Amino acid sequence: MSLVRRAVPEDAGELLRLRQVMIDSMSGTGGSTLWHTESLSTLRRRLAEPDGDFAAFVVDHPRRPGALAALVAGTVEYRIGRAGNPHGAVGHVFSVATDPDARLRGYARAGMEALLDWFRGRGVPQVDLNASAEAEPLYASLGFVRKPGPLDAAGAARRLVSWACPCRAWR
């Protein structure tokens, strides 16, 4: 039995909590959570759309009933087609977070594999994401490769690195 499951509307509060964990870990500070209240109803509605362009996969926390240990979320976007992607479907992974007390147990990998399977099932030939330096080994092991990323105002590479999965092999 898999640890990973598709998130449901009742998970929305925990998804927001884990997204905040990710945001705080990338910014290095504890950010405001005031936006959670306003976001909650939209997230619940999106989680209730099983055939929509958004999916989140979660792992229940093994020691805290009702809590989540990990979150992986992404969307399918449309862009005008091109060679190698004539239908213009592009996946984007935008939220990968593991509760600090549940890290190094393979939860993020399992969630990413479930999300990549979801993209694959939707015929998405390209998946993009941005990653912190700490997450690079995970994404490289899943087949993602570095893309040139944006530079900050001083011309230095940002902390986040863009990655793309050569998913054409899925076909």
CATH structural class: Alpha Beta
Low-confidence stretches: 156-160
The averaged pLDDT comes out at: 84
Strand order across the biggest sheet? 1-2-3-4-5-7-6
Radius of gyration: 16 Å
What's the helix count? Answer: 4
Number of strands: 7
Distance between the termini: 27 Å
**Structural class of the secondary elements?**
alpha+beta
Describe the oligomeric state of these chains in a short phrase. Answer: single chain
Count of structural domains: 1
CATH T-level topology: Aminopeptidase
Task: Characterize the largest beta sheet: strand count, sense, and whether it forms a barrel.
Answer: 7 strands, mixed
Percent in helix:
25-40%
Shape: globular
Task: Please indicate the percent range of residues in DSSP E strands (runs of 2 or more).
Answer: 25-35%
Q: Give the name of the CATH superfamily.
A: Gcn5-related N-acetyltransferase (GNAT)
Architecture (CATH level 2) name: 3-Layer(aba) Sandwich
SSE order in H/E notation?
A: EHHEEEHEHEE
